[in-house]
Amino acid sequence: MTEIPLDAVGVQHEPAGSDARIVSLVPSITELLFDLDLGEQIVGRTQFCVHPASLVDDVPSLGGTKKINMERLRDLNPTHVILNIDENTKALAREIGKTVPNSIVTHPMVPRDNIDLFRLMGGIFRREAGADKLCTEFDKALRAVSVASRRSRERRVLYFVWKDPWMTVSRNTYIARMLDIIRWRTILNDPAVRYPKVEITKSVLSKADVLLFSSEPYNFTEDDIEDFRETYDCGSKTLRLVDGEMISWYGSRVIKGLEYLQTLSVGRT
Fold it and tell me: Residue 239 CB: number of other CB atoms within 10 A?
């Protein structure tokens, strides 16, 4: 049996029994659990856990990713809660730790971290075969987009995740590392702030070839792009909407995300 990887805070988790009761407070990992055929063991989720759409409605929602209904959590009597360093707060993790025996902390930083994520979930919840299948599919998708991107020219990208204030991504984020695969380099970086605010100036715009407006966490629309173009002098720069789930979600979604990157790089989205 493949050794279960340590979680993001260095905890070695033991394989769970078939009676494990799982709460996932990470939307992308909720989808991964369903894809590992663990739906019957998922007893709680967040309101942002929306995939797979046909199944999550049957799982009780506990609230958001930063704040949940602790009384409802206790009533569900979970054995395992899945957390993420970016999406959930330390205070929430500490509070959950007083109630739930096992907290599994995740923090993928680069696309290849999905391999350990698949094996972590597959190993803990005894879905090794499903995890191995996802690892194979991931490697195949990554090879395909990596080979295709060798023929693409490097582009400088300003990737927006929020407005009022405008916010972007630093180089040390999963999003930036995903875009690196197709040689799209995010232009701003603050080692101390992973999602920094950005003042829109001519100097900033001059550094970018492409401006990307993500569908999450802020759901940008074509109207937002038109407003931006009217407000700022963008010249002939490319402004486009992108599917934030495909670029920022890890877990099983990354396989579709890699295919999406390949179409993005050749302008077919």
Answer: 20
Residue 9 counted as domain residue? no
What is the side-by-side strand order in the sheet with 80-84?
42-44, 22-24, 80-84, 102-106
Q: Are the C-beta atoms of 98 and 73 separated by less than 8 Å?
A: no
pTM, full prediction: 0.94
CA angle 31, 136, 138 (to 5 degrees): 55
Segment 134-188, tens digit of pLDDT: 999 999 999 999 999 988 889 999 999 999 999 999 999 999 999 999 999 999 8
CA distances 127 to 36, 97, 149, 255, Å, are 6, 25, 33, 18
Domain stop point among 99, 133, 167: 133
| Structural domain boundaries enclosing 103 | 22-133
- Contacts (Cβ under 8 Å, ≥6 apart) of 16: 79, 80, 102, 124, 125, 126
Amino acid present at 244: G
| Domain contains 216 | yes
Q: Decide if 213 contacts 224 (C-beta within 8 A).
A: yes
Give me the number of domains the chain comprises.
2
Residues 122 and 226 in one domain: no
